[in-house]
Design goal:
The complex is a heterodimer of chains A (about 110) and B (about 110). Chain A has about 110 residues and is an all-beta fold. In chain A, about 0% of the residues lie in helices and about 60% in strands. In chain A, the strands form two sheets. In chain A, strands 2, 4, 5, 9, 10 and 11 form a six-stranded mixed sheet that branches. Chain A has a five-stranded antiparallel sheet with strand order 1-3-8-7-6, with no helix packed on it. Classes of the chains: A mainly beta (about 110), B mainly beta (about 110).
């Protein structure tokens, strides 16, 4: 079993829809939880960074962490074609990130 | 510089050859990381530098892989006797200090033929 599980998709939604992306993890020692966005042939770009259970909002993006269920989510409101990318969850422990496989998202205009 | 710079952006090499991949971190960032990303997968940790020293090299797959950061800035990832299974995108990241968010470079796409 992988330490971090993420549905690879692909996921296609119409422009303006709310997108929900999720990861589960098995290691309760993970300290921080992150979401990265990766465009084709580019490096991952940090979107959200949280360390406690609850919600964190930044513009159209909301990150949610439930440590008791070992479950994290990213919600994207009013999705735009420019949001089309691969979204990676990542868990931080002792200066190492453990990534999910990434979910490929396409927003259809 | 403005971001993390990695050179070359693409490298094709023959099986058995030696390659060096270079990473120029953001100026002033003390922490530097190497990750490897295979097709359809998330990045996997290779090695972490704090300053000049390798603080954690537990992700290096075997002794053909080696990385240095002699002056605490630029880092080079070295792969000896390359194998086809080494083909991947090698990503470098830097951060201002431990526990801060990383900034990744665009990676070096290594193809071993």
């Amino acid at each position: 079993q992988k330490e971090v599980e993420q549905d690879p998709g692909p996921l296609s939604v119409p422009e303006g829809a709310i997108v929900s992306l999720n990861c589960t993890y098995s290691n309760s020692a993970f300290q921080y939880f992150m979401w990265y966005r990766q465009y084709s042939r580019k490096g991952p770009e940090l979107l959200m960074y949280t360390y406690s259970s609850g919600n964190k909002e930044d513009g159209r993006f909301t990150a949610q962490v439930d440590k008791s269920s070992k479950y994290i989510s990213l919600f994207i409101r009013d999705s735009q074609p420019s949001d089309s990318a691969t979204y990676l969850c990542a868990m931080h422990l002792n200066e190492k990130l453990t990534f999910g496989t990434g979910t490929r998202l396409t927003i259809i205009p | 510089g403005a971001g993390v710079s990695q050179t070359p952006s693409n490298k094709v090499t023959e099986k058995g050859k030696y390659v060096e991949l270079r990473c120029d971190p953001i100026s002033g960032h003390t922490a530097l990381y190497w990750y490897r990303q295979s097709l359809g997968q998330g990045p996997e940790f290779l090695i972490y530098f704090q300053g000049t020293g390798a603080a954690d090299d537990s992700g290096l797959p075997n002794d053909r892989f080696f990385a240095v950061r002699p002056e605490g800035s630029v880092s080079t990832l070295k792969i000896q006797r390359t194998e086809r299974g080494d083909s991947a995108v090698y990503l470098c990241a830097s951060s201002p200090d431990r526990g801060q968010g990383y900034t990744f470079g665009s990676g070096t796409r290594l193809t071993v033929v």
